[in-house]
Amino acid sequence: MNETAPSLPATAVRKKAKAWQRLLPFLITVACFVYIYTRLRSAAAAQGSTLLSYLLKSFENVDWLRWLALLIPYCCFYLLIDSAVVWKVINWFNAKIRYADILPIRASAYIISLVNEQVSKGGIAYYLNRRDGVPGWEITSSMLFLMFCEYYSLILWAAIGVTLHWSGFQHVFHMIPWIALGSVVFFIVFHLFFSGKIASRSKLRERPVFRAFRLAKAWQYGAVILLRAPLVLSGVIVYTLALRLFGGAVSYGEMLGYLPVIFFGAAMPGPMHSVAILFWVLLFPGKPGQMTAFGLVMHNFFLFFNAAVGLLFLRRATREIFG
Fold this sequence. Notes:
By secondary structure, this protein is an all-alpha fold. The protein has one domain (62-322). It has helices spanning 10-46, 51-60, 64-93, 99-112, 117-132, 136-164, 176-194, 211-215, 218-245, 252-266, 274-283, 288-322. Helix 1 (10-46) runs parallel beside helix 11 and helix 2 packs across helix 12.
């Protein structure tokens, strides 16, 4: 630990931390787009084209009506299932709330997702604290439980996809099953700890932020992963078909390995899902133009469409919070 830290006023430390947290997402976004720009400029120069002309070619031959026919139902389906998962977890650990009451706030929270998906879960915690009087730390604990399960959902599906199509993936993807195995081992120790089976005298588990993990049974982790399975599988189908509209071609099995990794990138802080767009370019290095166009429209349409749906519910959510 830095010995000089205590000499700084607490308010100055907090301000510095907040400024750093605000700046980090934009630095990540700038770094991603600088890398993409260099790749696009090199590809355009190799074809004797300007950067803008090269990039526009990637949009010209897309059947946009077919693309919208894929994306709009997928976004609506995602909202319904995602809301159901949040509703189930809150009913387990916090309060008995109707699905019809969770859907508006989950939709409204997508507006905050324009900046950061994880911060949007904080918006759900604030809403339930204001509307239903549920202690903030209890809701925060449930949101952490959700994020914990989301990680396991993605890593397990990625491991399945890579294992089924082992030879079709770049060598770096062969680490995913091992990461998944390590994650399973970690989960066993983690659950034994929070259920009091090991280190029973530790006071760490008694902190309010870990409340959901203390209450959670092993089957509830599995239930959340199963509830989220339709989101992953429908995403695999939609992204595979949409990629073909942009001149790409992968099997559903290959996309099952790719997409969870992409979703990890989408969860990184930063506007416009820049890390996810970067991952598409890295995964398909031979088609930087098509992959930039594909990632840009896929992730940002999803982002802005869900935020637009959230606007439909925002008036109700605002009334229930401040009314």
